[in-house]
């Protein structure tokens, strides 16, 4: 139970999740106001992890719905277990046959069947998907709707009923209202804009990359075996990589993977050679790899001061890569010289061959 903002920070820290006061305020208010949280930000900054640690801190079960292209209401809410329905009809076919004894025509048989059709469309044959599981749970749960921006806008519209009234409508069963209000966390990687109607129903939170000091604390907490100086070098290099115009900048989760890899390699300090050998843990696209190789000297500058204390402020380091030297194109220079000569001599009305007119 989050009794206060300070207690929220402390409980999340117990689960090894470092957060600032802004994030803790939203997490606290979401519980007190019983409103969903919409968390936006780049991939790998701790959005999904927040749902996991909130569930652990509150002592609740975590129900996760992973969104993807083509996700529809049936996959998110419920499905009928057709195989089980067919099995029951085969087992009970003798009894079903006796229902039609004495019926005079087809219309009478249909009417007789209509009286018992709800037997096969009851809760016994419903496969509950994540949203219905959360709504119908007798105990409070944490519902994570992960990467909603990957789903289509139609599915986003379907969520409005769930988020506003915490109820869903199943045509065969009617309206199912929440027995307990779930703690709902929705994440988005900003691959598309979400609707205003959805945002109105949620508390909004943006999680970006942490500053150097907080990221250093995260590395120390998650990878305690990493040496202090090496941890500072890791953070310094990561910040320089993020300063480049990469298609995919290294996330916090990739920083932790890299730090863990350095521990497994028994590294005591980060050298330019070791940096180059392990860059594939951070850079995932060939275009980005080429750009990093061009700026490798600048990226490796923090590694030159090996004896710097682990608490040295990384922000003092310049975070702008040096501009690339302009390569002189001989053909382009020759073309411009010819254009200039043509302009000059064309604009002169006299002769240019040295003879008098």
TrEMBL record:
Q: Name one GO molecular function term.
A: ATP hydrolysis activity
Q: Which residues form the AAA+ ATPase domain?
A: 33-211
UniProt superkingdom: Bacteria
**What SMART domains does the record point to?**
AAA (SM00382)
**Where are the residues of the annotated region Disordered?**
307-357
The record's listing under PANTHER family reads: MAGNESIUM-CHELATASE SUBUNIT CHLD, MOXR FAMILY PROTEIN
Name the chain's protein.
ATPase, AAA family
Which organism is the protein's source? Answer: Candidatus Competibacter denitrificans Run_A_D11
Taxonomic path: Bacteria, Pseudomonadati, Pseudomonadota, Gammaproteobacteria, Candidatus Competibacteraceae
């Amino acid at each position: 139970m989050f009794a206060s903002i300070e207690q929220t920070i402390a409980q999340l820290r117990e689960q090894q999740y470092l957060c600032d006061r802004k994030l803790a305020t939203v997490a606290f208010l979401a519980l007190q106001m019983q409103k969903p949280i919409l968390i936006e930000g780049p991939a790998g900054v701790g959005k999904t992890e927040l749902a996991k640690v909130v569930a652990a801190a509150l002592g609740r079960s975590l129900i996760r719905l992973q969104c993807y292209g083509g996700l529809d209401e049936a996959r998110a809410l419920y499905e009928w277990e057709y195989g089980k329905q067919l099995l029951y009809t085969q087992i009970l076919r003798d009894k079903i046959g006796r229902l039609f004894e004495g019926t005079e025509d087809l219309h009478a048989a249909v009417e007789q069947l209509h009286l018992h059709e709800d037997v096969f469309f009851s809760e016994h044959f419903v496969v509950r998907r994540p949203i219905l599981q959360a709504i119908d749970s007798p105990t409070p749960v944490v519902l994570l709707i992960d990467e909603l921006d990957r789903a289509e806008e139609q599915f986003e519209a379907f969520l409005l009923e769930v988020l506003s009234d915490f109820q869903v409508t199943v045509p065969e069963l009617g309206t199912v209202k929440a027995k307990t209000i779930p703690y709902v966390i929705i994440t988005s990687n900003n691959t598309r804009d979400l609707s205003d109607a959805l945002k109105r129903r949620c508390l909004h939170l943006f999680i970006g990359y942490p500053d150097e000091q907080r990221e250093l604390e995260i590395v120390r907490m998650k990878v305690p075996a990493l040496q202090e100086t090496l941890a500072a070098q890791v953070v310094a290099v990561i910040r320089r990589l993020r300063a480049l115009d990469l298609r995919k900048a290294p996330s916090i989760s990739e920083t932790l993977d890299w730090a863990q890899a350095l521990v497994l390699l028994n590294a005591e300090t980060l050298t330019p050679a070791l940096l180059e050998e392990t860059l594939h843990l951070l850079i995932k696209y060939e275009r980005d790899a080429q750009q990093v190789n061009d700026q490798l000297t600048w990226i490796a500058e923090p590694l030159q001061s090996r004896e710097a204390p682990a608490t040295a402020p990384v922000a003092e380091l310049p975070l702008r890569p040096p501009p690339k030297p302009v390569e002189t194109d001989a053909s382009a220079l020759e073309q411009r010289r010819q254009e200039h000569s043509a302009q000059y001599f064309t604009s002169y009305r006299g002769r240019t061959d040295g003879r008098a007119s």
